[in-house]
């Protein structure tokens, strides 16, 4: 239909403006506008796995709500699988899966399997298809023992796995995950990530992931989008984030003895502890010339390079933007 | 003491924040007030001086019922749902180790709530009712004071009953059943549906002797000038007696329950 | 009884659901040539809504059965709460022979028809006043992600079988009334009885839906709805002669609750309408019900649209 081939999810200058009433005086209410999403454009091809990150209130969940058809955009153009979500919400619902990490869609007092049977009938999944999908989810998400357990008795990690399965039984082409690993222990997190990776690789399911846990992004997504104040700050590879964020790598140098801070062009000493020194240099630069120069001028024993912390990079990005 | 005053103020503020809900509640109280006032008018037209009230006193009784419905929590609602939930989830253990007394803590909060409901949900329906019906409002400011005191005792009795209901959750799996029974009793025996002096024979005598009559029947009679002098003292003694007996029972249950929690290690 | 109530209820729920679904499909900017398409899908949407309502109701019923003892107790409580209501009326009649010119059996007839009609809609849609809470805590969004009409999901939300207690009580009082009341039975009058109970249930259902729609704007206002539902049924349990003419006019022409039982019941009882409406009015409840449901559907879809553009 209207897909021009490049994007499975397409946003062109999408906006969402809310009217907020604020108390001003005893009875008077002042109306002002909040641009929760302020002209966002991006394209996600079929089968890609994208991280969508930003601080609280940045516009992440507003974007997800527009992509799923819950909210109607105030402006711009938006298509998912060629469908305008706000206009054909129920038709789109058949083709998407959504998992809200902090909100279960499972039936609290009933065995897990009952929720799946409801999905089966509500989404009108053909019987054979349903059986295959359920078996697959049960195997990969380790749900066999849990199917007959009432949901209220499941742990947080088990429930999250249960929720992910519930979102996939109707073969959605795109999966939106909102904080899928929040509150989970390390093992559950690993299990969830592994499952998502397989799902994306084998089924080609397009995944859009919002999270606060950047390990999720590092382990799952090649591409990441950063949003703040309703605008895209960054859209590209994980590696590229460092350039944009002007981040620095660190060279840890062990010398034969205590010396004054090393002085070389293109790097600066940030910490000295006995014979060990830490030098910061731009992440985009190669470490090789720096190492050669230090080896030539100083009594070098050992050295190592530390990659920048993605969390720090993003925090710096937000800070830079707020300063503008 | 200071602590409990703060808790009470908190209880007041907590309900005061829901303005739309308060407005909606006032609307409901007014609608029900109108329906019942018309019904009573028909009843008293047929039988003037029924139950010792004249028509305007009967209609006033209706509007007092609407004004005190939330204040005295006749149909329940308020702190007990929260307390039941805390008992159910085990959070109660935290409360028991607090340096404040459990019963007084919740009572202070409930008194704060009642004060808000008297102001926020009691006055407006009464005023609206007085536009459409001739109400028997006391002339003597002392009667108003006497009434307020009776209402306060009514709130304490109501609290004491609901505290017992909530504590039952320590022993019953599901506090909802007890809460529902209390709601039914409160609705019927407070005199909300019909003044207790209209209940015939033994039913009437029993109903008037039960604690729930402290919630509406007694304060309403004080308001309508049915209790004066020693009789007023007797009415107060009735309310206070029930309040003390029920609070003491609550305290006893609380002690037993505390021991239980401590034994189970929370 | 249970089955009957449920089928009847699902018909209503989906009737309204179809309106919503077709409107969503129609949303602004659809070319005129396509304008008729939603009409075709209207029937499908109705069927979808009905089916989804049934599915979700089934889940709630199974959840209820997980706490069987609690269910029995609350069903009894539901019965008892409404029974006290009628006991109060009995106590009144301990002091008088007639209220507003109506005998006890006649009042019982009004009570039974009103309580049964209300009980049916309460069973079908009684938890719709939770919509405001769902909007506030954001759980409404999860319903918007499903491929079935939102109205059907909200209507089925927290479906509570214990509300059968209220219907049982209404039917009991109605039975008592039919045994004792002095009615000059004709075929028309006999047919009037199921007609008014079903139409009445539909009118109350429209009030439930409209009340829920109002909560899209005022999330804490569920009590306003109670005034019209619980207040309405209380009002209709007493003879219209008790109330001021203006109030009776209000519930006839503005919020047409009088069509639930007053107007048709007065016809059955062979009594004058206090507003002097012609006998023909007694046959209008089905029509009034249809109009009310349509208007409630309009209110609902306006509310949902407002929610989807404001998100709160």
Report on the structure:
The complex is a heterotrimer of chains A (324), B (266) and C (312). Chain A has ten helices and 13 strands. The radius of gyration of chain A is 24 Å and the shape is globular. A six-stranded mixed β-sheet of chain A has the order 5-6-7-3-8-9, sandwiched between helices. A four-stranded antiparallel β-sheet of chain A has the order 11-12-10-13, with no helix packed on it. In chain A, a hairpin with a 2-residue loop joins strand 11 and strand 12 (276-282). Chain A has 324 residues and is an alpha/beta fold. Chain A has helices at 60-67, 89-93, 112-122, 127-140, 156-168, 186-203, 214-220, 240-244, 288-297, 310-323; strands spanning 9-23, 29-44, 49-53, 75-80, 96-100, 174-178, 206-210, 223-228, 231-237, 248-255, 268-273, 276-282, 300-306. Chain B is mainly α and 266 residues long. Chain B has one domain. Chain B contains eleven helices and no strands. Helices cover 72% and strands 0% of the residues of chain C. Chain C has helices spanning 2-26, 37-65, 68-93, 104-125, 131-137, 140-144, 150-156, 164-180, 187-214, 222-236, 245-254, 262-269, 285-310. Chain C starts with a helix and ends with a helix. Chain C is mainly α. The radius of gyration of chain C is 20 Å and the shape is globular. Chains in contact: A-C, B-C. Chains B and C meet through helix 2 and helix 8 of B and helix 3 and helix 10 of C.
């Amino acid at each position: 239909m209207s897909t021009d081939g490049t994007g499975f999810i397409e946003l062109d200058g999408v906006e969402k403006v809310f009217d907020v009433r604020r108390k001003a005086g005893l009875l008077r209410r002042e109306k002002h506008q909040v641009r929760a999403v302020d002209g966002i454009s991006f394209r996600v091809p079929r089968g890609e796995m994208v991280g969508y990150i930003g601080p609280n209130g940045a516009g992440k969940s507003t974007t997800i709500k527009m992509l799923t058809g819950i909210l109607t955009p105030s402006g711009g153009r938006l298509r998912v699988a060629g469908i305008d979500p706000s206009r054909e919400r129920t038709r789109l619902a058949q083709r998407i899966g959504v998992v809200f990490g902090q909100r279960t869609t499972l039936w609290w007092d009933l065995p897990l399997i009952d929720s799946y049977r409801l999905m089966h009938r509500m989404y009108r999944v053909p019987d054979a298809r349903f059986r295959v999908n359920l078996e697959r989810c049960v195997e990969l998400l380790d749900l066999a023992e849990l199917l007959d357990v009432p949901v209220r008795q499941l742990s947080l990690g088990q429930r999250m796995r249960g929720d992910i399965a519930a979102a996939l039984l109707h073969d959605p082409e795109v999966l939106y995950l909102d904080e899928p690993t929040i509150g989970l222990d390390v093992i559950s997190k690993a299990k969830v990530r592994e499952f998502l990776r397989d799902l994306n690789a084998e089924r080609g399911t397009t995944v859009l992931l919002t999270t606060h846990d950047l390990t999720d992004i590092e382990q799952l997504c090649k591409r990441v989008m950063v949003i703040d104040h309703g605008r895209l700050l960054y859209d590209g590879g994980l590696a590229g984030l460092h350039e944009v964020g002007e981040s620095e790598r660190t060279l840890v140098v062990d010398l034969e003895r205590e010396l004054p801070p090393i002085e070389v062009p293109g790097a600066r000493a940030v910490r000295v502890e006995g014979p060990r020194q830490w030098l910061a240099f731009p992440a985009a630069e190669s470490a090789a010339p720096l190492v050669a120069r230090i080896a030539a001028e100083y009594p070098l024993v050992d050295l190592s390079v530390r990659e920048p912390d993605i969390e720090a990079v993003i925090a710096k990005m937000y800070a830079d933007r707020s300063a503008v | 003491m200071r602590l409990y005053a703060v808790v009470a103020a908190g209880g007041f503020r907590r309900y005061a924040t829901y303005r739309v809900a308060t407005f909606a509640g006032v609307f409901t109280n007014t609608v029900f007030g109108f329906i019942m006032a018309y019904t009573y008018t028909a009843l008293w037209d047929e039988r003037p001086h029924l139950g010792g009230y004249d028509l305007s006193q009967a209609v006033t009784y209706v509007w007092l019922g609407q004004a005190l419905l939330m204040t005295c929590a006749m149909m329940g609602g308020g702190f007990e749902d929260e307390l039941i939930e805390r008992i159910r989830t085990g959070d109660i253990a935290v409360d028991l180790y607090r340096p404040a007394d459990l019963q007084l803590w919740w009572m202070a909060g409930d008194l704060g709530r009642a004060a808000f409901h008297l102001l926020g949900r009691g006055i407006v329906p009464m005023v609206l009712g007085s536009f459409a019906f001739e109400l028997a409002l006391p002339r003597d400011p002392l009667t108003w004071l006497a009434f307020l005191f009776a209402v306060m005792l009514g709130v304490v009795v109501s609290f004491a009953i609901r505290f017992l209901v909530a504590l039952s959750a320590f022993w019953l799996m599901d506090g909802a059943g007890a809460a529902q029974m209390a709601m039914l009793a409160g609705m019927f025996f407070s005199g909300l549906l019909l003044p207790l002096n209209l209940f015939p024979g033994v039913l009437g005598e029993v109903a008037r002797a039960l604690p729930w009559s402290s919630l509406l029947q007694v304060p309403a009679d004080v308001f309508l000038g049915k209790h004066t002098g020693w009789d007023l003292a007797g009415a107060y003694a009735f309310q206070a007696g029930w309040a003390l007996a029920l609070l003491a029972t609550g305290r006893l249950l609380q002690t037993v329950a505390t021991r239980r929690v401590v034994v189970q290690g929370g | 009884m249970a089955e009957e109530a449920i089928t009847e209820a699902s018909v209503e729920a989906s009737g309204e659901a179809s309106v919503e679904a077709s409107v969503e499909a129609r949303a602004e900017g659809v070319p005129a040539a396509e304008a008729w398409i939603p009409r075709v899908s209207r029937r499908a949407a109705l069927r979808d809504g009905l089916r989804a309502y049934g599915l979700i109701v089934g889940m709630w019923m199974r959840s209820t059965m997980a706490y069987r003892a609690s269910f029995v107790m609350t069903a009894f409580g539901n019965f008892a709460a409404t029974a006290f209501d009628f006991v109060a009326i009995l106590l009144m009649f301990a002091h008088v022979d007639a209220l507003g010119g109506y005998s006890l059996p006649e009042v019982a007839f009004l009570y039974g028809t009103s309580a049964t009609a209300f009980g049916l809609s309460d069973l079908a849609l009684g938890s719709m006043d939770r919509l405001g809470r769902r909007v506030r805590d954001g759980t409404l969004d999860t319903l918007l992600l499903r491929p079935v009409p939102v109205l059907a999901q909200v209507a089925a939300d927290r479906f509570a079988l214990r509300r059968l207690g209220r219907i049982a009580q209404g039917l009991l009082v109605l039975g008592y009334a039919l045994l004792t009341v002095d009615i000059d039975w004709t075929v028309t009058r006999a047919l009037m009885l199921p007609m008014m109970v079903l139409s009445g249930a539909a009118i109350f259902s429209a009030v439930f839906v409209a009340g829920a729609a109002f909560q899209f704007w005022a999330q804490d206002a569920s009590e306003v709805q109670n005034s019209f539902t619980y207040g309405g049924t209380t009002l209709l349990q007493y003879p219209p002669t008790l109330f001021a003419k203006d109030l009776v006019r209000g519930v006839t022409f503005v919020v047409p609750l009088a069509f639930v039982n007053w107007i048709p019941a007065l016809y059955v009882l062979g009594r004058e309408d206090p507003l002097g409406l012609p006998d023909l009015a007694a046959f209008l409840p089905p029509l009034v019900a249809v109009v009310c449901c349509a208007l409630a559907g309009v209110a609902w879809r306006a509310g949902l649209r407002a929610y989807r553009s404001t998100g709160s």
